[in-house]
Amino acid sequence: MPQFDFANVFLPQFVWLVGFFALLYFGIVKLTLPKLGKVIDTREGKVRSDILGAEAAKAESDKMAADYAAGIAAARDDARAVLTAAKAKSAKSVETKLAKAGGKTDAMIDDAETRIAAARGAAMGEIEAVAAEAAQAIVTKLTGLQPAKSDAQAAVKSAMAA
């Protein structure tokens, strides 16, 4: 078998091996690897620029979130101030209305007390008159003598005063 005859076959096979190795090596290293290196460099640059863009977008979104939170806080403070002012205005209005109603109520109470006092006086006068008549009738029935109307009224007044 000729392939096992190493004395005659080794040198030509070795030459072919070196030739193909050199051809493949220089074909890959000189032609393919630079193109592949450019692709890798381009991709690395794109990834870096994307990462930088993402970091810039994140920083901007963080700034926007902080601005939004500050805006919300300012709006809450404004709303609290408006609410406090509205409460104060409402309380003042209620106090004014209560004062007016209190004045009207006081006037009505004073008027009612005056009418009650007048009615009490009239009732006391009528009670005294009825009591004087009753006292006259009792004394007349018990003694048979009719006392004077003025004496009966004086006796009723002194009894009521005591």
TrEMBL record:
Membrane disposition: Single-pass membrane protein
A Pfam family reported for this protein in Swiss-Prot or TrEMBL: ATP-synt_B
Family: Belongs to the ATPase B chain family.
Molecular function GO terms recorded: proton-transporting ATP synthase activity, rotational mechanism; proton-transporting ATPase activity, rotational mechanism
UniProt organism field: Flavisphingopyxis soli
Residue intervals passing through the bilayer: 14-33
SUBUNIT field: F-type ATPases have 2 components, F(1) - the catalytic core - and F(0) - the membrane proton channel. F(1) has five subunits: alpha(3), beta(3), gamma(1), delta(1), epsilon(1). F(0) has three main subunits: a(1), b(2) and c(10-14). The alpha and beta chains form an alternating ring which encloses part of the gamma chain. F(1) is attached to F(0) by a central stalk formed by the gamma and epsilon chains, while a peripheral stalk is formed by the delta and b chains.
Name the UniProt record assigns to this protein: ATP synthase subunit b
Functional note: F(1)F(0) ATP synthase produces ATP from ADP in the presence of a proton or sodium gradient. F-type ATPases consist of two structural domains, F(1) containing the extramembraneous catalytic core and F(0) containing the membrane proton channel, linked together by a central stalk and a peripheral stalk. During catalysis, ATP synthesis in the catalytic domain of F(1) is coupled via a rotary mechanism of the central stalk subunits to proton translocation. Component of the F(0) channel, it forms part of the peripheral stalk, linking F(1) to F(0). The b'-subunit is a diverged and duplicated form of b found in plants and photosynthetic bacteria.
Cellular location(s): Cell membrane; Endomembrane system
InterPro entries for the chain: ATP_synth_b/b'su_bac/chlpt, ATP_synthase_B_chain
Main location: membrane
Keyword Ion transport annotated: yes
Signal peptide per UniProt: none
Entry keywords, A to Z: ATP synthesis, Cell membrane, CF(0), Hydrogen ion transport, Ion transport, Membrane, Transmembrane, Transmembrane helix, Transport
Keyword Ion transport: yes
Entry GO CC: endomembrane system; plasma membrane; proton-transporting ATP synthase complex
